[in-house]
Amino acid sequence: SLVARMTLKAGKITSLAESIRAIADMEDPISHTLKKTEVAKDLVFEKMYCPLGVLLIIFESRPDALVQIAALAIRSGNGLLLKGGKEAMRSNTILHKVVTSVIPDVVGKKLIGLVKSKDEIADLLKLDDVIDLVIPRGSNRLVSQIKAQTKIPVLGHADGICHVYIDKSADMDMAKRIVLDAKVDYPAACNAMETLLVHKDLNKTEGLDDLLMELAKEGVVIYGGPVAHDTLKVPKVDSFHHEYSSMACTLEFVDDVQSAIDHINRYGSAHTDCIITTDTKSADTFLQQVDSAAVFHNASTRFCDGTRFGLGAEVGI
Question: Where does the Aldehyde dehydrogenase domain lie (predicted)?
Fold first, then answer.
């Protein structure tokens, strides 16, 4: 999964360039008036977008993140300090050079800085009078460490334990397409499915058997929760909190939509979760009660993406 995140193939570079063009073509957000209110005679209150200031963004492994983050910072008028993982140092150095080479002199190349040494991070985290926001993009351990070491506000999201729940009324052909896309398309991504929850009435049905056969055919290793382990005879999972980031996932049977919601809110990471159902009441309950950044009805978790949402790119939180 690490190599998959680090690789910059031609296709990825093309889509990266397209996402940067999408950001460039967006309406300039800065000084855009959101609201204008006359709070008293001749006293007008204006609410506007403005830059945050200087951002320190610490990210792991994916060099394409550097380009996306830099483009968003330029577009939103923010200064930026970037610290990538040592495993992608050469890629990050070259990409930083490309980005800064196109910044006009009136703005200045130092708008976007690249921090190369891990030792510098501790010193930077003390600069709460200079840096306005820290965004750690990476493991749970990284986010926790950053939060503990600074007085600067931290915006962090660590794990990507995404769920797909197949309700008893689900169209199983649709379920098969969604689950295969969510797991197989790009398993190393944070929006890939890690846990498949299935309504207990679908156990041993032809539709579920067909889905499991397709996953196995694609090379996906399935681990079971207590119920799935007993009934399907698959290896037992050690923890429902596990993020595989590879061709493996956890499967468990649940009693109903409420049980699925409770499971997700207890074991999930509040990233992206999906319900597959033809029952609109069950779908509405799921969408309202699952406490995640993105909650989908009949759509792959892989759709949780800044470019897909029409934002051009994302910081990855």
Answer: 11-203
